[in-house]
């Protein structure tokens, strides 16, 4: 009723709509006061329904089907990095996450594994398809990290690699004639493997996560958690959480990026259990008539996907089933955006060439 009355009433101060209106150069003061009162009234006080009720089916919900069909045709990209010392089961963990041989082991059976003298980065790309959905998965391994006697600045090659991917994306983005879809090689998540010592975090672990958490989403996990008892695992996890809080290290999911109360409540439950105590295995065993992934020991089989045995299902849910798109969004909107702003604000950043848009 309020909207209809507003449309039918003539403008304030106007006479008949058929006669021209004579206006003086100095409007009366009363009109100014009335205009100020009109501006002061908020729009939310107008009566009427908040939403608009439809008389029939329009088909707005079909947008979701359109997005699904388009995503299934084009697919999407996901880039993950694993960091940790040799022998912590990084390759096995990645193969267990995606249930396929997406990460090659550093050495074949019967061959001696040589520890590289410096940190080397190896990226392997696979196309995984499940129920018609294609995902271009890139796994980046970091052999040689933390394996030397002197591990000073061993994180520099990793930081350089992550920034190089941001730089590559930025150079494609500032082109005058850009591609419709820019190839995304940026690292969306970094899984850091903490050795199962049962003590506090090492200075290497603290320094790495302190530096890397500022440019990438870091998810710490306790590797080979089956070497710890349940009491040792809980105590070790509590010490790691205290270390992260004491040194102001913000790992994923970060509290500052929670969008609404529901996300905050979900992420709070995840943050209580970080770092996840995980066990990786890429071999199946027969348990109660079912084939399960697990590790066979003298006293039984450790089922990887059983939440009573380890927290691998929580890690899988976080990286793939519930927060995969959020990892990509935070990478693009937060980490890459801060890198882009920093690069464009640098005094030595060259302007784009008029020919191709590349920096001269």
TrEMBL record:
Limits of the Septin-type G domain: 74-346
UniProt-annotated location(s): Cytoplasm, Cytoskeleton
Keyword entries, A-Z: Cell cycle, Cell division, Cytoplasm, Cytoskeleton, GTP-binding, Nucleotide-binding
Ranges of biased composition (kind: Acidic residues): 31-40
InterPro entries: G_SEPTIN_dom, P-loop_NTPase, Septin, Septin3
Region (Disordered): 1-43
TM annotation in the entry: none
Alphabetical list of SUPFAM superfamilies matching this protein: P-loop containing nucleoside triphosphate hydrolases
Biological processes annotated in GO: cell division
GO cellular component, one term: cytoskeleton
GO molecular function annotation: GTP binding
Recorded family membership: Belongs to the TRAFAC class TrmE-Era-EngA-EngB-Septin-like GTPase superfamily. Septin GTPase family.
Protein name in UniProt: SEP12 protein
Species the sequence originates in: Erpornis zantholeuca
Phylogenetic classification of the source organism: Eukaryota, Metazoa, Chordata, Craniata, Vertebrata
